[in-house]
Amino acid sequence: KILVIGANGQIGTELVNALRNIHGADSVIASDINSPTYAIRHSGPFELVNVLDKDNLHHIFNKHQPTQVYLLAAILSAVGEQKPKMAWDLNMTGLLHVLDFSVEFKVKKVFWPSSIAVFGPHSPQFNTPQYCVMDPNTVYGFSKLAGERWCEYYFNKYGLDVRSIRYPGLIGWRANPGGGTTDYAVHIFHEALKKGKYQSFLSANTALPMMYMDDAIKATLMLMDAPAEKITIRSSYNLAGISFTPTQLADEIKKLMPEFEISYAENDPRQAIADSWPKSIDDSYAQKDWGWQLEYDLPKMVGDMLVNLKKII
Ligand code: VAH
């Protein structure tokens, strides 16, 4: 049985979908603190779970005896700055509860997402390497940095096979993002199709590492399927994706929607968060250790997003 915690979220929805296609619906237990979204409700078993409620979480582990656990529940960068203590508690204590029960119930593999948010103003901004100075200044960022340290600790101390990826901003059509700084890159597609225009909360030349969700899910499954001896990073793997600015994304959309117009808001608090993050990432460890290769470049991603969103908007 595979337990996915945070199944209603942007990544969780996609992972449940992908894992159910591979393993069969009944092998994948979707769970979240709120009742299932439409996408999740009709595709297999669901449990209400609160990672901060040890009794409830223990009951779910005991009932399902999972062999794999994916912990996606978190508060992201922008919301985390509005609710810093809640973000620290959910992101940190929630992870520790899941790591402890994964050891107790002898879970074979655990996945936990980190983020390029673990880098900060003094990290190299271009082709940011796997190892470098990391001084994240968002609660979300340093909760992910601390989480990486805990994951490596549980691997070294308890032999728990926990694996992780530092995701860039993720763009997909099956589920919306949940309160991050890169959310503009999803909202822009919805607004382009609904209104023909979009006001970006990040400035025109804010370059960030991004990735199409299909690539992110493929990378996650490749990492989880890799033989344990291939995994040389037990904190979290850099994953590069595609780096672009809001202007470059808008120009690519205009190639398919010539009437589309973009404008830019000023002084959005998310600008400072974006400015503290790398502009591009080096993911040579992921390429070397488990054969990572990107599939979606910017034109291919924009085309696929618009084709699929058109069907559901
Ligand atoms: C956020 N989407 O914006 C997340 C992600 C790299 C960005 O961690 O907070």
From TrEMBL:
PANTHER family annotated for this entry?
A: L-THREONINE 3-DEHYDROGENASE (PTHR42687), L-THREONINE 3-DEHYDROGENASE, MITOCHONDRIAL (PTHR42687:SF1)
Domain NAD-dependent epimerase/dehydratase, which positions? 2-232
Question: What is the recorded name of this protein?
Answer: NAD-dependent epimerase/dehydratase family protein
**A biological process (GO) annotation for this entry?**
L-threonine catabolic process
Q: Which Pfam families match?
A: Epimerase
What's this protein's family per the entry?
A: Belongs to the NAD(P)-dependent epimerase/dehydratase family.
Q: Which organism is it from?
A: Mucilaginibacter ginsenosidivorans
* Gene Ontology molecular function terms on file: L-threonine 3-dehydrogenase activity
What superkingdom heads the lineage?
Bacteria
